[in-house]
Write a structure and sequence with these properties.
The protein is an all-alpha fold and 286 residues long. It has helices spanning 2-16, 28-77, 86-102, 109-202, 211-239, 245-276. The termini are far apart.
């Protein structure tokens, strides 16, 4: 810990120089933090120093190369920048600016051609991407147009559906009112029928002539008619028998008697229905 403390103290003196070092709590944790900070700070200072030295070295190399080229031009071609006209100086500046814009390593023709080829390729790639984006934009516009058309159609269908629902709603309300009217009429008819039956009963009308009794008699007559049909069929089958005339005659007589009995019962029921019905002039409805 003492070695770290000495290292931290020297680093703080170097950082603050003639300024007094701020007071801090001396313990293992604080010393470790300051020691690590000193290590990082000195490592950064070394990196910066190396970078500065490298830049100075490159600057010296560039300056030496520039002096060499200038001496070469002066000795070989008797050429100097001071001998250039204003137009030549302008061309030279344009050449330098172009080289800096194209980020070439030098001002040679090969460097310019390579840089221009790279820019041409980038331009072609950009134009290709632009064409793809234009096609995609056209596709999106078509889809958007189709979506708008579909939306308009759906709105029209929705409007028609709402109108149809309004019409059906009006019809349903009308049917509901008609149904209510019919129910009310039905209840009214039931009450009037019941009142009429009570009035008829009070005037001495036979209960067998009520609506329900007449319906029951009608159903019974229909059943008797249905029972007569198979007997007639049976009788007709007996009429076709020829092998034993005496036996056939017996069967025919039995069928005739049975048929006569049913017809008599049918006539009796019909006569009873007719005789039991009172004259219309004797009934008075209110």
């Amino acid at each position: 810990m003492e070695g770290k403390l000495q290292r931290v103290t020297l680093w703080l003196k170097k950082v603050f120089g003639d300024q007094p070092i701020p007071q801090y709590e001396v313990n293992a944790k604080t010393i470790d933090i300051l020691y690590e900070l000193a290590e990082h700070n000195e490592a950064r200072d070394r990196d910066i120093s190396l970078l500065i030295d490298d830049m100075k070295q490159k600057a010296a190399e560039y300056e030496a190369e520039a002096n060499y080229l200038q001496d070469l031009l002066t000795e070989s071609l008797d050429f100097s920048l001071t001998n250039l006209s204003s137009e030549g100086t302008g061309y030279l500046n344009e050449l330098v600016n172009s080289a800096m814009t194209l980020e070439t390593k030098d001002t040679s023709l090969a460097s310019f051609i390579s840089a221009i080829n790279d820019l041409t390729w980038d331009l072609y790639d950009t134009e290709s991407k632009n064409r793809e984006m234009e096609l995609e934009l056209i596709s999106i516009k078509k889809k958007l147009t189709a979506a708008l058309v579909l939306e308009k159609r759906l709105q029209e269908d929705l409007k028609k559906t709402e109108e149809h629902l309004e019409v059906e709603k009006a019809k349903a309300e009308s049917r509901s009112q008609n149904l209510k009217f019919l129910k009310d009429k039905s209840e009214d008819f039931k009450i009037r029928i019941k009142a009429a039956e009570e009035q008829l009963s009070a005037t001495g009308l036979d209960q067998s002539l009520t609506h329900q009794s007449l319906v029951n008699l009608s159903e019974k007559l229909a059943e008797l008619e249905q029972e007569i049909v198979p007997l007639k069929t049976k009788l007709e089958s007996y009429l076709d028998l020829t092998p034993n005339p005496s036996l056939a005659q017996v069967k025919i007589e039995e069928a005739k008697r049975e048929l006569d009995a049913l017809e008599a019962e049918f006539s009796s029921q019909l006569d009873m229905l007719t005789l039991s019905m009172p004259e219309p002039s004797k009934l008075r409805f209110t």
